Amino acid sequence: MSEEMVTRFKSFNYKQFLIDNSAFVTLILLIIVATVIMGGTFFNAGNFVNILFNNAIIGIIALGMTLIIISGGIDLSVGSAAAFIGLITITVINHTGSIILGVLSAFASGILMGAFNGVLAAKFRIPAFIVTLGSMQIFRSLSLHFWNGGGVLLGRIGGTPVEHDVLGYRTFATTRIFEGILPNGLPLPVLYWIALTILIAIFCKKTALGRHIYAIGSNERAANLSAVKVTRVKILVYMIAGALVAFAAMVESSRLGSMNSATSGTLYELQAIAAVVIGGTAMNGGRGRPIGTFFGTLTLGVINNLMNMMGIPSFLVGAIQGSIVIIAVLFQMTMTSKERQF
């Protein structure tokens, strides 16, 4: 080993590396523990694919939540919005026979819902917590009202089969690739999630809008004085997040072939926020990475998977997740206070 390499090795800031990559390190440690406990039952390609598949929908929603929290906001309406959008999408497809119109209606609905939250929070200066708490109730109530507390089934209207062939919509989420390489193949939603993570990461790092999101979350007043159009950026953030919720709603409605106004999307907002926090995004804004959210979502997925394998009651899953979120926030606060001391 050369002298230069030894110097670099000694000067490497391991503490900062652990802070910046806490979500990845936590995930690796968790996988090691799960493997020691469950052995090959846990550590196999088929199980890993299932974990990715089962968490792709929350993972996609969490990417939008990451942008919102980095900008200093919050969105409690994503679960209700996902249910509403999924119901709209299947209803449009059933009545028109057009998958394209269904997809367009999904994105239009998601972007409009995001704009609704963004305008109230940014332009009218209503706290985002209050705005999205209200819109969460609005979206859920509208879903229950228009679909009579029930749901929709792809290919059926009121129990009667539709005249159109709309079942092709299900291939959007149920198609699998690499079936000759991986057991049962790799579901497309996993690829969607990975691709969107990469795109959002590039967007945050390489675009002016992405940098403005961080600037606003770090210091909104300073960003405003630096000629950043704060109101417009905040509205755009909520609209982007709304589009991601719409995409996730399409994945879920395609995968299930149905949506329910009462149960679909339940607690998605809490799971998304948990994934973002575990991924290292600061709740007070200005700091965070989409890749961290990706690993944070997987951390929750591995915990759920391990608990299921161990036969731990599903009612305790929320308690475990909540404890992890509290620990993650305490870790952030501790690291932030230490940074300020220096």
Number of domains: 1
> Helix- and strand-based class?
mainly alpha
Number of helices: 15
Which CATH architecture? Answer: Orthogonal Bundle
What is the residue-averaged pLDDT? 91
C-alpha geometry: globular
Spatial gap, N to C terminus: 33 Å
CATH structural fold name: ABC transporter involved in vitamin B12 uptake, BtuC
Strand content: under 5%
Provide a short characterization of the protein structure.
The chain has 342 residues and is mainly α. Helices cover 72% and strands 4% of the residues.
Describe the structure in your own words.
This protein is mainly α and 342 residues long. It has one domain (56-311): ABC transporter involved in vitamin B12 uptake, BtuC, CATH 1.10.3470. 72% of the residues lie in helices and 4% in strands. The protein is built from 15 helices and six strands. A two-stranded antiparallel ribbon has the order 1-6. Strand 2 (156-157) and strand 3 (160-161) form a beta hairpin. Helix 5 (78-96) packs parallel to helix 7 (128-146) and helix 13 (268-278) packs parallel to helix 15. The model has no long low-confidence stretch (mean pLDDT 91).
